[in-house]
Prior knowledge:
By secondary structure, the protein is an alpha/beta fold. About 35% of the residues lie in helices and about 15% in strands. It contains 13 helices and 13 strands. Helix 6 runs parallel beside helix 7. The longest helix has 20 residues, at about 150-170. The protein is globular and about 60 Å long.
Amino acid sequence: MAPTSEHPEAAAHDVAERSSAAGADHAAPASAAGAATAGASEPPASAAAEASPTSRRASSSSRGRVIALTGAASFLGRNLIGILEEDPRIARVVAIDIKRPDTGGSKLRMHTVDLTEPASEERVAEVLAAEQVDTLVHLCFLSSPTPATAWAHELESVGTMHLLHGARQASLRKLILWSQTILYGAHPTNPNFLTEKHPLRADPDERFFADKMAAERELNAFGAKAKGTTVTILRTAPILGPTVQNYVTRFLARRLVMTMLGFDPLWQFIHEVDAIAAFKLAIDSDFPGTFNIVGDGVLPLSTIVRLAGRTAVPVLHSAAGPLASALWAAHAAIAPPSFLRYLRYLCVADGEKAAQVMGFRPVYTTREALLDYTSAQRLRDVRLLQETPA
Length: 390
């Protein structure tokens, strides 16, 4: 990927500070994502109610649903909270994070929990029981690689274990996890479209991939044992749009974009609004299983670079690896060398299952998502669009 100057923990800032690791620095426009901006209340967590799980679930249902989100201050978290606030069927929205989301209103209940801490398991169990949560949405994942691999492992892999151990003590009706289609891996033997039955073959030595794949395994094991809990995994294509920020947007924001000489793989995106809509759909209805969430259509990388108004810099494969390694070691690249495979080979997912089972139909195509991002990026290029830190 193209080099850029970044602090070692720049990826963590994609998600509004460390355990908010689910998206990017900016909330989507209120008109698109339904974000609310009223103030939020913060009652302290209390001990679990003495009522049985069945009675707690029935009581919660009579008053409206209670949705909890980890990574609540991330891009996906903030925008989902804004939409949930406006849904009359939702009684409370429970934010589990180390930073307050800025889109919460009167329904928001904030609980400060750091999933990298060993005590977070008990804290999660306490919050879920005290708030009588029926649906937990796990968004606490990095949207971009970071050199801080030890912390990333504690957050994503170990943090997911802490979360699920706490969830086992609660009476959840539904658990939803965010994953990414990039985990299928880029390989010369990949079919044109990868279905959910295809194995995850991203580089297991790359922590950005390995931790997310481990989280999926943990959730599937949880689902196999949990009785009465619907477990859903949404694997999104790279999210693109006018306000999201991740490794793809940084890659395309550079004037000079590294490509691999002699290779022009197909890429696909999902628009930020469509990604948010897919999670709302999974919250509203029960869809057990794993689903690819992708935009319609694909584009060659050369076309993507051209539409973004950038200049491709083809690099020999023999030189790209050492160059990428040196830049990543110097904290001057947006991604480690393992990402070079996505500049060579195909990694495109099939969204038919989500369409048939969930009824998910993206509003934006891959091309339209790119053009929407490009329009906003051109304004940023000429400093007409100001970026607001999370």
